[in-house]
Amino acid sequence: MREDKLEVLPGERAEEPGVVGANILRLAHYDRITGLPNRFLFREKIAQMLARGASQAGLVAILCIKLDRLDRLRRHADRENADFLLREAAERLRACLAGQGMAARTGSDQFAACIYVSDADAAYRLAEHMGQELAAPFAAGDAPCHLRPSIGICVEAAGSADGDALLTGAESAMLDAQARDGDQRLFAHRGAKPSGDLVVLRAGLRRALQQGELFLQYQPGIDPDSGSIAAVEALLRWNHPQLGIVPPEHLVALANETGEIVEIRRWVLQEVCTQARIWHAMGFGGVAVALNASAMRFNYPGLAGAVAEALDRSGLDPQCLELELSESVMLPQTHPAAGMPDELRAMGVRIALADFGGGYSCLGRLTQFPFDVLKLDRTSVSDLMRDPVDAAIVRAIIALGRILDFASVAEGVETREQFDFLRAERCSRVQGAYVSPALDPEVLLQLLKQRRGALQECMSGQDG
Asked: Does residue 328 lie within any of the structural domains?
């Protein structure tokens, strides 16, 4: 541990208190394991950097980094090795900053950095560098250890920024990045000058819906026992005429920034319900359509009304629409849309609880939430063949779902071994690259027909 050196801002002199004073200072303001500033001191330093940057008309970026799997390793691995991982991660962050800005440890598995940047793209490049360094194997214990960094970024002109708002924005982006399987994600750059591509995207988004550049693909989720398609998840895409396919996380972030998200939400809901109704009219009435409402930022009080309108216009049976919501939306009095799940259930819409088994999932709340489906945390699914703890968590959640009469859904299934494990545990539905990529509606229709034909052939063979 680097107890002999206190972290300071570039150009700032370190104070030299007495021995007792130095110890008290460290306990109050610095992390014991890594020697980095803690959350309290980090907030103070952000304010100082914003004040300095204001006189130079500079930009300040905050990057929040969550190291997925670290908490689990700290609980189940040797404490000495876990502390080594924290110290090594801190050193890698310091090296990435190269003496510019500052790093801090803001949570048990979370770090943050604050740095002056020339533009938003510079912050994104730094995040990519940090992601590469932190994803490289750590030599802890007998075997290399791999952590998965999720990074959120918030950039603002120093003179108009609020430190707490910047930190909150970066942490929100970090959680969104984690939900998207650890992809780094540029959350916002309010007041910062975006790159040429971002200017083009922001301007193009206003016409994208009218010109048919937005479209939906559908990823099948199958019953692992029968192989039949039980549901399809709708995924939003944008085919920009100059830049090609835009990453979904950039699309949603820009849509929120420009205000276009309201119209896009309405269009997505109507399109999803109409498409499902078409498939049902063609004889595939057993196929439900799922929509990750949390990823699409549907967590707002007007969702219930928009859903009711889409169902009414399309004529879709509400039981065939499944909306995935985050646990935070379910908590009473902690979210502006807290009552929304009850309204949706009253319509007959099925509710899925997102990413259960990871983060702050609470078993005690299962009986309080109005939902029908438990969606397993992606990280646990991806690691279940390597980590006995993840395998046990997945097994327990599937069994719990059967006991409480909830369907269990596993996303991100990429290998035959994962599929066989989930089938043996009687998981209700699996989806991922091993099963099928996301497909255009016409291609999915052909797959539905093939699956139905194969099932009919199998049944007729049994009759014979």
From this structure: yes
SS (H, E, C) 38-60: CHHHHHHHHHHHHHHHHHHCCEE
The predicted structure's pLDDT at residue 125: 82
Q: How many domains does the chain have?
A: 2
Query: What's the farthest any 2 CA atoms get from each other in the chain?
Result: 91
The tokens describing 81, both together, are 């090795």
Query: Edge to edge, what strands does the sheet with 59-68 contain?
Result: 102-107, 110-117, 59-68, 148-157, 185-188
Using DSSP, state whether 227 is helix, strand or coil: coil
Question: CATH number for the domain including 375?
Answer: 3.20.20.450
> DSSP states of 319-373 as a string?
GGEEEEE-HHHHSTTSSTTTTHHHHHHHHT-EEEEEEETSTT--GGGTTTS--SE
User: For residues 136-155, b (16+ Cβ closer than 10 Å) or e, as one string?
Assistant: eebebeeeebebbbbbbbbb
pTM: 0.62
3-state DSSP call for residue 30? strand
* Residues 281, 316: Cα–Cα separation, whole Å: 10
Beta-carbon neighbour count of residue 159 at 10 Å?
Answer: 16
* Domain finish residue from 147, 167, 194: 194
Burial class (CB in 10 A: 0-12, 13-18, 19+), 119: middle
Contacts of 326 (CB under 8 A, 6+ apart): 179, 294, 299, 354, 355
The highest-confidence range among 194-208, 255-269, 382-396, by mean pLDDT, is 382-396
pLDDT tier, 296 (very low <50, low <70, confident <90, very high otherwise): low
C-alpha span between 85 and 91 (Å, rounded): 10
Tell me how far apart the alpha carbons of residues 410 and 430 are, in angstroms, rounded to a whole number: 5
Computed over every residue of the chain, the mean pLDDT equals 78
Helix (H, G, I), strand (E, B) or coil at 106: strand
Give the mean model confidence (pLDDT) for residues 354-373: 65
